[in-house]
Design brief:
single chain, 6-stranded mixed sheet, 7-stranded mixed sheet, 23% helix
C-alpha cells in the first residue's frame, strides 16, 4: 500500500470504529428472553379457580390524543405533526384514568406508554397513570418495545422509550419479556428500530394452577408485511405451548391485523399493508377471539371497530386491529369495545372481555 494512503485508510477505520461505538452506546439490544421485575405486594389477592375475571386491552397511543396527524400516520410519512403538547397529554392521561376507573377491569393490558422519550416530553407515563390508579392496581410489570438514547430520524432526533404494561388487581407471580421477530433492515437501521415483544405474566390460582396473561403489540401495517407473519407464527407457537400443557391463557393487544372480511370494506388507499388473507388466521383457526369474526364483520360490525386513524380522510373508527384471544378453557361471559366516550383519547379503542376461569 502506498505510504500516502496509509493515514487515510487508518483515519477511515478509526472514524468507522468511533461511529460504531456511538451507535452501540445509544441503542438497545434486548435478549431473546428476559425475566422482568414485578411490583406486587404480598397482600394482593390471588385468583380463585372458577371465578370471573374482567380483562381490558388498550393501546393508549402514548397519550398523544386525536388532534394531530403525525408523520407516521400517513403511508408516505407526510403527516405534518411530530409531537403532542403537554396539555393534550395531560388531558389524555386523565381520560385514560377515568375510563379505567369506570370499567375497573381486573387485568389491564396497555400498549404504547412512554418513558424518557423526547416526543412525549420525557414523561414516565406509567408512573403518572399509577398515581391515579394506585388504590386499584397493586401489581404491575412492564417491558420496553422501543428504546434508544438517540434516534437520528428528523422527526424524532432524540430519545425514544416505549412500553407495554400489565396492571393487575391480583398477584403476579413472575413475568418475562419474549422478543418477537424484528423487521429486516440494514445493520445500522436495525439498531434504531422498535423491537416488539410479548410481555408474559403468570398469575397464580388458589388451587396451585396459574393463568398466563400475554400482552403484545405487533408491527404496524407496511407495504411489506412479511415480518408480521413471522411475529404471528411466534405468537401462535407460544399459546400452542401453553394450551398443550393444559395451562389457561389469554393474549391481548394491538395486533395491527384485520379480521376476515374487513379488507374489502376499506378504501383502496387504506388497504395498503394489509393482506386479504389476514395472518390472524394462525390464531382464529384454533382459538376463540374477541371480537370474533362474525362480530367484526356482521350486521353490527360498527360496534366492534377498534381503530380510529389520525388521518384527515377518516372521520370515525373504520377497522378492527385490537383483540383478546383466549384458551378454550376460559368461558366468555361478555365482551365489547368501549366506543362511546373514548374516541377523543387515542387512535385505538379499548376492548373489554369478562371470562370464567376453569374451575378445576
Amino acid at each position: 500500500m502506498p505510504r500516502l494512503l496509509r493515514p487515510t485508510v487508518f483515519g477511515l477505520l478509526l472514524i468507522s470504529a468511533v461511529v460504531a461505538g456511538l451507535i452501540f452506546s445509544v441503542t438497545w439490544r434486548p435478549d431473546p428472553k428476559e425475566v422482568l421485575p414485578v411490583t406486587c405486594p404480598v397482600a394482593a389477592p390471588t385468583l380463585v379457580a372458577g371465578q370471573a375475571i374482567k380483562i381490558m386491552t388498550w393501546n393508549v397511543q402514548y397519550l398523544a390524543g386525536k388532534r394531530y396527524v403525525f408523520w407516521y400516520n400517513l403511508i408516505d410519512g407526510s403527516g405534518p405533526d411530530d409531537r403532542p403538547t403537554r396539555e393534550d397529554m395531560a388531558f389524555s392521561l386523565d381520560e385514560v384514568a377515568r375510563v379505567i376507573r369506570d370499567e375497573q377491569p381486573d387485568l389491564i393490558l396497555l400498549q404504547d406508554l412512554d418513558e424518557e422519550a423526547k416526543s412525549s416530553d420525557y414523561q414516565n407515563q406509567l408512573a403518572l397513570l399509577q398515581e391515579r390508579l394506585v388504590d386499584l392496581y397493586p401489581c404491575s410489570t412492564q417491558a420496553f418495545t422501543w428504546k434508544a438514547d438517540f434516534v437520528p430520524d428528523r422527526h424524532i432526533f432524540g430519545s425514544v422509550g416505549r412500553k407495554i404494561v400489565t396492571l393487575s388487581r391480583y398477584q403476579i407471580e413472575h413475568a418475562e419479556r419474549l422478543q418477537l421477530p424484528v423487521a429486516d433492515s440494514n445493520l445500522i437501521s436495525r439498531q434504531f428500530q422498535p423491537k416488539p415483544a410479548m410481555l408474559v405474566s403468570y398469575l397464580p390460582l388458589n388451587d396451585g394452577g396459574q393463568l398466563v396473561a400475554i400482552n403484545t403489540q405487533l408491527d404496524a401495517a407496511a407495504l411489506n408485511n412479511t415480518n408480521l407473519k413471522r411475529q404471528m407464527q411466534a405468537t401462535a407457537a407460544l399459546v400452542d405451548k401453553y394450551e398443550s400443557q393444559g395451562t389457561p391463557w389469554v393474549i391481548g393487544g394491538n395486533f395491527n391485523l384485520l379480521p376476515i372480511g374487513q379488507f374489502l370494506r376499506l378504501p383502496a388507499e387504506e388497504r395498503l399493508g394489509y393482506s386479504p388473507d389476514s395472518e390472524l388466521h394462525l390464531l382464529w383457526e384454533k382459538y376463540p377471539m374477541l371480537p370474533s369474526n362474525p362480530e367484526a364483520t356482521g350486521i353490527d360490525r360498527e360496534q366492534w371497530l377498534t381503530y380510529f386513524p389520525n388521518n384527515p380522510r377518516v372521520d370515525e373508527p373504520d377497522r378492527t386491529l385490537d383483540y383478546l384471544f383466549y384458551s378454550p378453557k376460559l368461558q366468555r361471559v361478555e365482551g365489547y369495545v368501549r366506543q362511546e366516550d373514548t374516541q377523543a383519547i387515542s387512535d385505538h379503542l379499548p376492548v373489554v372481555g369478562r371470562f370464567l376461569l376453569p374451575a378445576d
